[in-house]
Write a structure and sequence with these properties.
Blueprint lengths: L1 E9 L16 H13 L6 E2 L8 E11 L5 H11 L4 E9 L11 E9 L13 E2 L6 H7 L5 E4 L18 E12 L2 E8 L6 H14 L6 H8 L14 E7 L1
Parallel strand pairs: 3-10, 5-6
Antiparallel strand pairs: 1-3, 1-4, 2-3, 5-9, 5-10, 7-8, 8-9
Helix pairs in contact: 1-2, 3-4
Amino acid sequence: MRNIKLTLAYDGTDFAGWQVQPASSTIQGTLASAIGRITGEKVLAQGSGRTDAGVHALAQVANFQTESVIPEGNLLIALNDILPPSIQILAAEEVAPDFHARKSARAKSYRYRIYREAICPPFRARYVWHYPYPLNEQAMSEAAPRVEGKHDFTSFAAVDAERDREEISNVRDVFSSQWGRESSELVYEVRGSGFLHHMVRNLVGTFLLVGKGTLKPPDVTAIIEAKKRSVAGATAPASGLYLANVEY
């Protein structure tokens, strides 16, 4: 039995997220179907995390067990021939039997893109949050580092039934958090030990309130300490979010 690690990128716009669901098109389900066609086996690749409906990935990682002897290079080519253009495998390699895409991960990085011009080009609209209204971007930059460090991020966690049953704590360690300008886009980059469901999008929604002047940068610290979802900002749209990197 071989353990295959895949690195893949995808446009999540037309999918109901990563996790396989009945009667819905998902990344995991589409990938499982492609692997099955090639190997003749019924396998379900395990991802490093479950991206939500509409969320994209620049470098998601998944792994699956197989008895197939197909070389990794040939497997990569065959999968990309079967998968839709919106999902493509960037790398395939055989790894140690104990490697697990989620459990072995040591850090993850996300990017969030906000398009700031008055008119958003239609070919970019699927991949950004179009927000052309006034924002104090300097204040947002000052607020971002306030979430760095090990905290209980209950204020930024989704309150729903999709919580992973293995998660018993909302404590996460954020290694870096910053906003930057890239031409017409305001881009948020965050790296941490792991992230709660909707956590990055809820952080972005809260930083937006700082940009609008509804909150001040120090208020972010108070929101973390409150441990109440109701005191943080609204969840930012899925279209601007990308899983950028997973570290092992």
